[in-house]
Amino acid sequence: MAVAPPLIGKFESILAPDELARANRFKFPSLRNRYIAGRGALRSILAQYLEMNPAALRFQYLENGKPVFADASAGMGFHFNLAHTGDLALVAVTRIGPVGADVESVRPIKNVDELVARFFSKREDELFRRVATEQKPAAFFNLWTRKEALLKATGEGITRSLSLVEVSFLPGEPARLLAISGDAKAAGAWVLKEFSPAEGFAGAIAINCETSNIQHPTANIQCGERRERELVVKCWKWE
């Protein structure tokens, strides 16, 4: 997030001591400011939903670093997730269930076929090798963002589980979670959707609807107010 210095100062003033300590460990001011901007924006957005002072929010961290509300009751049933890449940050907020989000800049990756073969499933590897060379960057980041969104939602992280989550990823193919550890039924508890928050970027969001009272939900990433489906995921730009 490219944020003006006065706003960086404002964001810095609402961070918790542990967040400030982490910010100050960055060697480069640009990286420090990105971290402060991301965490400050997260606090500001959540505070609007909760009608709280953003500095009063308290987080705790799961084993793989996912932040959650330290006091679930203070979170009023909201779930959230933060993703960022370069100067772009994404915050997902919902009351439906655990949520994960990811965003990446689409760009060529060196030795991409070898990366897919090493870290993704056999089925995904076989399909990826058939993708035209010029479409491989888009296909790779479809794979990456969709898997990471799901793994961030579960709190597992990507280190050990990339090959255990299978998703659709071919260019133009709607995002779908196909299986978790080979179990297609387990995938049915999740809604997985792709979107592009800015030109040249791929994004994905995963929401667990297992505890929702919405029956067989579908999701639609949508900018605007028009409701087309039972469960609508709206995206908007925060100023």
Note the main attributes of this structure.
about 240 residues; alpha+beta; Ribosomal Protein L22, Chain A; 2 domains; 3-stranded antiparallel β-sheet; two-stranded antiparallel sheet; 11 strands
Structure characterization notes:
This protein is α+β, with helices and mostly antiparallel strands. The chain has two domains: 5-76, 4'-phosphopantetheinyl transferase domain (Ribosomal Protein L22, Chain A, Alpha-Beta Complex), CATH 3.90.470.20; 100-234, Ribosomal Protein L22, Chain A (Alpha-Beta Complex). It has seven helices and eleven strands. The chain has a three-stranded antiparallel β-sheet with strand order 5-9-8. It has a two-stranded antiparallel ribbon with strand order 1-2. Strand 8 and strand 9 (201-208) form a beta hairpin. The longest helix is centred in the N-terminal third of the chain and has 22 residues, at 29-50. The protein is globular and about 50 Å long.
